[in-house]
Amino acid sequence: YYEPFNSPQYSYLNGQVNGGLLTWNDVGSSGSGVVVYPGSLTGIGLPASAGNSIYFGGYGLSARFSFSPGVAVNTGSLYYSFLLQVLDSTYLTSSGVFVAGFNNTMGPQSTQPSVVGTRLYVRSVAGGFNLGVAKNSSTGSDWQWDSRVLTNNQVIFIVGSYAFNPAGDGNDVCRLWLNLDPSTFGLADAPAASLT
């Protein structure tokens, strides 16, 4: 699925239908919703971006779209990728906050999701912030952090994956790549992940 966020600028993402005919839904109980923002980000080695971007901040609502109804994904690997730009890290905490990931529920929801695979986290550190990942845990001691200190307004290319273990014994694997070298794009084998 590709999402150019071609909805009207400054509209809420909730209720918008993406290019794959999937509807975005609000998730959570309070705060502002995610907003479609004019312009897009461009990453090194990636095709020129088109369309808009989304903007959210603070502890407001989240947004999600569901895969096609009735299509359960429980084998193989799932991937997400996007460009991230943190405009203001002032209110980040040193313990970290959840930003993105895979969820197993469809449609709107009045609470924040509790099952989220390949959870992307961000935390404040001296001089900026770090990005981290967890397979499916909201317990801080389970999170793995990349040591790079990132800064406000830096554009970061993020790729996350969730691989289902065919043995079904709960040993699924999540991986996160940050700012991949463009020379690795399209290789038969993925480069080493930043975090596993």
Concise structural overview:
It contains no helices and eleven strands.
Strand order of the largest sheet: 6-7-8-9
**Helix- and strand-based class?**
mainly beta
* SSE order, one letter for each helix or strand: EEEEEEEEEEE
Helix coverage percent: under 10%
Shape: globular
**Number of helices in the DSSP assignment:** 0
By DSSP, the count of extended strands is 11
Contiguous low-pLDDT stretches (5 residues minimum) are none
Biggest sheet: strands, sense, closure? 4 strands, antiparallel
Determine the N-to-C terminus distance: 24 Å
Mean pLDDT: 90
Which value, in Å, is the CA radius of gyration?
A: 17 Å
Q: How much of the residues is beta strand, in percent? A: 25-35%
